[in-house]
Structures are given as structure tokens and as C-alpha cells.
Specification:
The protein is mainly alpha-helical. The protein has 18 helices and no strands. The relative contact order is 0.17. It is 81% helix and 0% strand. It has one domain: Growth Hormone, Chain: A (Up-down Bundle), CATH 1.20.1250.20.
């Protein structure tokens, strides 16, 4: 939950950064691009760390880095210091996701995996939601910097609580891993045809959702005419609906399988965005955006289940790090790519841009051999 608090805050603030620091759209997109690049380069090292070191120590590091960098951002009055702060903050994400999900996938019972993953993703949605809503509150009162300062305190406190916890220990597995640390990963198993195919699906899909998430508030403010506060509130409601979407993804995955759940979720995203692009009425637009958020968050549980199913358990950390590397690679370059396209056309074209990639990923997914 805490790791996800700032996930949507940076992109929701892009219109504010443009105004306060006198930036172009491409300059402002660096707030999303530079942190993504840093996170990208840390994904593979995080995988090796997750397979070799204690989970709670890695989780402690991720929370401390996030809390301290958030405090730095809250004190900045310079754009490049802001970029530095949110970039350092991004270090926490690969450390947490790779080590946390690896730990989870190894010890959760297989028959409960889908529902448990859905609940796990729902808590991530809670973090995104409270971060976005608190941003809207602080924009109306003390200013956006207080969003970073406010959450830095409980994040740091939780880091020390994790360090003292005994919940992240499993001695049997640790002994087994100690015996195997000298061996090299079986890359032929790790880079199977199925895993490479799935990475292609994820990469194409990531282009679509990254473009929308980066420029949605900018479109609402500059394209539709919403106030920054209204756009932030609507953007913040997305993760609240995402809580239901995450639980839905876990439930459906248990009932019909991960692949079908992922297919239906991507299709739901594409349809809701297609209709959203054609409307401007506040209530209808809000409903369609929240419908998109529901389907978008339904994606995460089946995605992680498929990664777990098609990669070897002994190299799960490295498997997740490669998965997040691909995700980070796309997330790093998409905002600038999309900004270049939109500056040559219009903000509205973010919708067809994203929809094309979503549909392409859906078609590519159908050829994956997985139930």
C-alpha cells in the first residue's frame, strides 16, 4: 500500500508542474520518464538480490528510500531537484515488487494464489487511491508539496516495523536456496518461448496504459476544461474502483483462469476508452473513466499468476525482475514518445494511440499457451 502511494501523484501533478516551473509538455514528461529509466536499470539487480537476501531487509530498504526521497521532494523549489527526488523514490518500487512478489509466490498455496494475489493488488490500489485523494485535499489547502511530506512519516515508520517483523522468514526455503546459490540460473527454462511471448504481450499493453495514465489529467484540464482539483479527484477515484477491480481479477482468475481474465480485462479497457474519447459530459466521462480503472486493475492479478506459472520457482526473483524490466523499459520511453505525437496533433489523440496498442496486445495474448 505505501509503495503505491505516490504512483499516480507525479503524473496527476504534470499540469501543476507545467504552470509552476514554466515547462513544455515534453519537459514535464521527464517527471515520468527519468524515474522510469532509473527503475528500469535496477530491475535486474533487484532480481538477483531477491534470490539471495532476506526479504524483510530488502523491504526495509525500499520503504526508507521512498520516505526519504519523498521528504526531499517536499522541500524542493527547483524542477531538476524535483526530477532527482522522484527518480530516487522510484528505486523503492523494483526492490519491493521483485522481493515481495517473489516471497509471496513461493509461500502462498497454489489453490489460493489467484484470490490472494487479487487481495494483494487491492491493497496496492488502496495506496494509489489515498495518495491521489490526499493530493486533491492538499491542492485545496496547503499545496501539493505537503502530499509528499505527509506520507513520508508513516512510510518511514512502517519500514522500521517491517525490519522488526518475523513474518518474512521461511528457514526451510532459505536453507534450500543457500545450497543452490552457487549454481547459475537455467536461462533456457527462464527464457522459455512462453515467457518471451508473454513479455511481448505485456510490453505492447504497457505502451497503451502508460500513455493514458501519464496524460489523462492533462487531457481533462486542457482538453475538457476541468479544474486541476476536479481532475485530481477523478483521477484519485480510479484506484478506489481499482480495489474492486483487483479483487475481481483475483476472483475471475480462480474461476475461469488467468488468461481469460486477462483477455476480458484488456478488452474492457479498450472498449471503455473508445467510448470515453467521444464524450465530454462530466458524469458520463467520469463513469467511463472509472469503468476503465476497474478493468485496468483487474489485469494485475492474472498477469502475476501467469508469470508465476511459466517461470521456475528457484529463479522467481530473476523472473519477476525481467518482467518488471520490460514493464519499466516501456514505461520509461512511452511518455516522451506519446508527448511527441500529441504535440504534433492534439491531446485527444492519446485515446486512439492507446487503444491501438491495447487491441494489439489482446490479439497477441490469444496465441499464448496458458489456461
Amino acid at each position: 500500500m505505501f509503495i503505491e502511494v505516490y504512483l499516480l501523484v507525479q503524473v496527476a501533478l504534470i499540469p501543476v508542474f507545467i504552470r509552476e516551473f514554466q515547462l513544455s509538455l515534453i519537459q514535464a514528461s521527464l517527471v515520468a520518464t527519468v524515474p522510469s529509466l532509473l527503475g528500469l536499470f535496477l530491475n535486474i539487480p533487484s532480481g538477483f538480490l531477491a534470490d539471495r537476501f532476506n526479504t524483510k531487509h530488502l523491504l526495509f530498504v525500499s520503504l526508507v528510500v521512498e520516505g526519504l526521497s519523498a521528504f526531499l521532494v517536499s522541500r524542493t523549489n527547483d524542477f531538476w531537484t524535483l526530477v532527482l527526488g522522484v527518480s530516487v523514490m522510484r528505486i523503492s518500487s523494483p526492490i519491493y515488487h521483485v522481493s515481495g512478489l517473489s516471497h509471496f509466490s513461493r509461500f502462498a498455496k497454489h489453490e489460493q494464489m489467484s484470490k490472494s494475489m487479487g487481495f494483494h493488488m487491492a491493497l496496492g490500489s488502496v495506496g494509489q487511491a489515498i495518495g491521489s485523494v490526499s493530493l486533491a485535499v492538499f491542492l485545496l489547502t496547503l499545496g501539493w508539496r505537503w502530499t509528499y511530506l505527509f506520507w513520508s512519516v508513516p512510510i518511514l515508520a512502517w519500514g522500521f516495523m517491517v525490519l522488526k517483523s518475523s513474518e518474512f522468514e521461511n528457514k526451510g526455503f532459505e536453507r534450500k536456496e543457500t545450497e543452490k546459490r552457487g549454481r547459475r540460473p537455467k536461462l533456457s527454462l527462464l527464457f522459455s518461448t512462453g515467457f518471451l511471448h508473454f513479455l511481448a504481450v505485456l510490453g505492447i499493453w504497457q505502451v497503451g496504459i502508460t500513455a493514458i495514465s501519464t496524460f489523462m489529467t492533462t487531457y481533462l484540464v486542457k482538453g475538457i476544461g476541468f479544474s486541476q482539483t476536479t481532475a485530481s479527484i477523478l483521477f484519485g477515484l480510479g484506484p478506489f474502483i481499482g480495489i474492486l477491480g483487483s479483487l475481481n481479477g483475483g476472483y475471475l482468475g480462480d474461476r475461469v483462469g488467468a488468461k481469460k481474465t486477462l483477455s476480458w480485462s484488456i478488452l474492457g479497457c479498450a472498449i471503455s476508452l473508445s467510448i470515453l474519447a467521444l464524450v465530454s459530459h462530466f458524469y458520463l466521462l467520469s463513469f467511463l473513466y472509472l469503468l476503465y480503472a476497474f478493468f485496468n486493475h483487474s489485469v494485475w492479478s492474472p498477469t502475476n499468476i501467469i508469470v508465476t506459472d511459466i517461470t521456475p520457482a528457484t529463479d522467481r526473483g530473476l523472473s519477476y525482475s525481467i518482467y518488471f524490466f520490460v514493464e519499466g523499459l516501456i514505461a520509461a520511453f512511452t511518455p516522451t514518445l506519446a508527448a511527441g505525437v500529441l504535440q504534433l496533433s492534439d491531446l485527444w489523440y492519446v485515446f486512439p494511440f492507446s487503444i491501438i496498442f491495447l487491441i494489439t496486445s489482446l490479439i497477441t495474448l490469444q496465441f499464448l499457451k496458458h489456461t
